[in-house]
């Protein structure tokens, strides 16, 4: 099985393999940022509302880096090949702000802005080159290889983070996250060898008529609904998951150890599935994973009774998320193809990310409103109902693409 996987991976074009490696470099760090930085914000501020605001700022700048900067790239005729360097430079600056500036909430929002901007600029390059370097025939396997790396780093990243927490606290007597904040900027330097294997690509300037088509063409109604639905679980998950992990497991070291153990269990399942996934069963596999994820989140209704409910949830999510994500990833690429008009795929790419930001903002806005009128515990309970429904909404709209 592993020999077959390696052989198929080597058969991918050089540019597609370079994309996979670049994605893996990003995943190693972003997996730490996505969970542990949100835990850090919640632990530092002690406020779920602050965590909601942090993510609203973060996702706004993701959209600004993707759609806003992506538009500038097209209109000013800037090559996307070297856009990665700009993105990683901003990423590094964001972590330097964490190291050298005070850790109060205002400066955490500054980090969210820089980090989100770098992430958006990174993703506009990723999705552009995915459309250029993959085909309908190899897209499922490509997406599986991307997710395989994600699962490997779901073991390695928490392990590295946990080790850094231990060294900071027990050996060097520093603040818990200090060493981790120094490690992350240097990880992005690993991307340089793969950057130069990408073909040069400069998107064409985008005419106003193309924006009019994307916004008002009735044929794209189903695609718009799917993309908007896909953004909503992200908003809920970015807030609920880190808050409940800290409330259940009490320390970031405990969270890191659990994530390390859970990540190791899902790698084999993903490799096996990569050879069985194809165009005809994407939506069916998505359904199975969505039902499993919904059941996993239902376990969190009982998180206050015992940490074992969170542990069981984490096991289910770790096994099912990569399966869900591969189908979602391939369907996302299909949605981008449906948005493609006579101009090119690029305007649809920018429009799609703007819709995703709207979906994320709706879910975060709902949590923010709940916090104004209910307690944090009640918001967490209602938020769990909302995230379960949002996952079903993704499937419901995916089967209509």
Name the structural class. Answer: mainly alpha
Radius of gyration: 20 Å
Estimate the mean pLDDT confidence.
86
SS strand fraction: under 5%
Proportion of residues in helical segments = over 70%
* Straight-line distance between termini: 32 Å
What general outline do the C-alpha atoms trace?
globular
Kindly summarize this structure in a few lines:
The protein is built from 16 helices and no strands.
Tell me what the structure shows.
The protein is an all-alpha fold. Helix content is 81%, strand content 0%. It is built from 16 helices and no strands. Helix 4 runs antiparallel to helix 7, helix 10 runs antiparallel to helix 16 and helix 14 packs antiparallel against helix 15. It is globular. The model has no long low-confidence stretch (mean pLDDT 86).
Any key phrases for this structure?
single chain, 401 residues, mainly alpha, 0% strand
């Amino acid at each position: 099985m592993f020999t077959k996987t390696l052989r198929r991976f080597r058969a991918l074009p050089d540019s597609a393999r370079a994309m996979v490696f670049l994605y893996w470099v990003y995943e190693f760090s972003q997996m730490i940022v996505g969970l542990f930085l949100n835990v850090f914000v919640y632990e530092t501020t002690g406020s779920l509302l602050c965590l909601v605001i942090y993510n609203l700022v973060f996702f706004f700048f993701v959209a600004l880096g993707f759609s806003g900067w992506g538009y500038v790239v097209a209109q000013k005729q800037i090559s996307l090949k070297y856009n990665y360097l700009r993105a990683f430079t901003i990423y590094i600056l964001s972590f330097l702000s964490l190291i050298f500036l005070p850790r109060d909430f205002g400066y955490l929002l500054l980090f969210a802005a820089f980090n989100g901007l770098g992430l958006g600029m990174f993703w506009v390059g990723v999705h552009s080159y995915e459309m250029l370097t993959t085909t309908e025939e190899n897209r499922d396997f490509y997406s599986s290889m991307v997710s395989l790396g994600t699962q490997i780093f779901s073991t390695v990243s928490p392990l590295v983070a946990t080790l850094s927490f231990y060294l900071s606290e027990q050996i060097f007597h520093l603040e818990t996250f200090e060493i981790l904040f120094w490690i992350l900027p240097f990880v992005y330097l690993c991307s340089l060898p793969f950057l130069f294997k990408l073909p040069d690509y400069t998107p064409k300037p985008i005419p106003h008529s193309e924006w009019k088509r994307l916004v008002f063409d009735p044929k794209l109604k189903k695609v718009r609904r799917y993309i908007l639905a896909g953004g909503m679980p992200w908003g809920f998950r970015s807030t609920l998951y880190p808050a409940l992990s800290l409330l259940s497991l009490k320390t970031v070291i405990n969270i890191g150890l659990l994530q390390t153990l859970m990540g190791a269990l899902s790698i084999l399942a993903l490799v096996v599935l990569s050879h069985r996934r194809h165009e005809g069963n994407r939506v069916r596999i998505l359904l199975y994973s969505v039902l499993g994820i919904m059941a996993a989140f239902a376990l969190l209704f009982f998180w206050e009774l015992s940490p074992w409910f969170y542990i069981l949830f984490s096991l289910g999510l770790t096994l099912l998320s990569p399966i869900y994500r591969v189908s979602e990833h391939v369907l996302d690429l299909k949605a981008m193809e449906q948005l493609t008009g006579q101009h090119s795929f690029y305007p649809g790419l920018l429009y799609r990310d703007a819709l995703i930001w709207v979906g994320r903002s709706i879910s975060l806005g709902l949590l923010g409103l709940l916090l104004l009128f209910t307690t944090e515990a009640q918001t967490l309970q209602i938020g769990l109902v909302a995230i379960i429904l949002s996952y079903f909404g993704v499937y419901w709209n995916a089967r209509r693409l």
